[in-house]
Specification:
The complex is a heterodimer of chains A (about 120) and B (about 110). Chain A is mainly β and about 120 residues long. Chain A is globular and about 40 Å long. Helices cover about 0% and strands about 55% of the residues of chain A. By secondary structure, chain B is mostly beta strands. Chain B is built from no helices and eleven strands. In chain B, the strands form two sheets. In chain B, strands 2, 4, 5, 9, 10 and 11 form a six-stranded mixed beta sheet that branches. A five-stranded antiparallel beta sheet of chain B has the order 1-3-8-7-6, with no helix packed on it. In chain B, a hairpin with a 6-residue loop joins strand 4 and strand 5. The chains are: A mainly beta (about 120), B mainly beta (about 110). At the A-B interface, strand 5 of A face strand 5, strand 9 and strand 10 of B.
């Protein structure tokens, strides 16, 4: 399998612009997670989906962030408007139902810099 | 508040020695425990998980769990320079995965 695929790998944008990050989970995985990682705060769970339904979005920092999963093979994380404090690496991860709870397969991440 | 604590390091270990990484957690109800490895600029990857008290061995890696002391550790035998990475401890609390900040391990040739 190709693994979890994220795009773009790198994004540099200016404050106020809209940012859309994309993720394709591993085929057959029913859980999809969006994480953010910074030096200061480590890995933070933003939101996760089960069977395309958002289950817990309590980690989404504010209304500027939104996530969708229109089908089993695609998810987006959108930031509008972006701010410099959103600069981080954003990881998408997937996990199969019936697998080891806590066994996550991460994509390579999208490194975001907001100037 | 559910917390997972790790020493941030860096932990420097000579090549060939045993590296010992430690993690403590706050909730006695935790059921499963995970060690992820993250190379610089890369994504985390799972290397070991453990459910039961005691030791679990996989090649050069051993995970140790002591639920009474709320303590989980990872031992790496015969450390190699390729083991240099940040090791993240994660604990499953009621289906929530809580992450430690990670310990940076440096293996010196």
């Amino acid at each position: 399998d190709a693994g979890v695929i994220q795009s773009p790998r790198h994004e540099v944008t200016e404050m106020g612009q809209e940012v859309t990050l994309r993720c394709k989970p591993i085929s057959g995985h029913d859980y999809l997670f969006w994480y953010r990682q910074t030096m200061m705060r480590g890995l933070e769970l933003l939101i996760y989906f089960n069977n395309n339904v958002p289950i817990d979005d309590s980690g989404m920092p504010e209304d500027r962030f939104s996530a969708k999963m229109p089908n089993a093979s695609f998810s987006t994380l959108k930031i509008q408007p972006s701010e410099p404090r959103d600069s981080a690496v954003y990881f998408c991860a997937s996990s199969p139902t019936g697998g080891v709870a806590g066994e996550l397969f991460f994509g390579e991440g999208s490194r975001l810099a907001v100037l | 508040q559910k917390e997972v604590e790790q020493n941030s390091g860096p932990l420097s270990v000579p090549e060939g020695a045993i590296a010992s990484l430690n993690c403590t957690y706050s909730d006695r109800g935790s059921q499963s425990f995970f060690w992820y490895r993250q190379y610089s600029g890369k994504s985390p990857e799972l290397i070991m998980f453990i459910y039961s008290n005691g030791d679990k061995e996989d090649g050069r890696f051993t995970a140790q769990l002591n639920k009474a002391s709320q303590y989980v550790s990872l031992l790496i035998r015969d450390s190699q320079p390729s083991d240099s990475a940040t090791y993240l401890c994660a604990v499953n609390f009621d289906y929530q995965l809580i992450w430690g900040a990670g310990t940076k391990l440096i293996i010196k040739p």
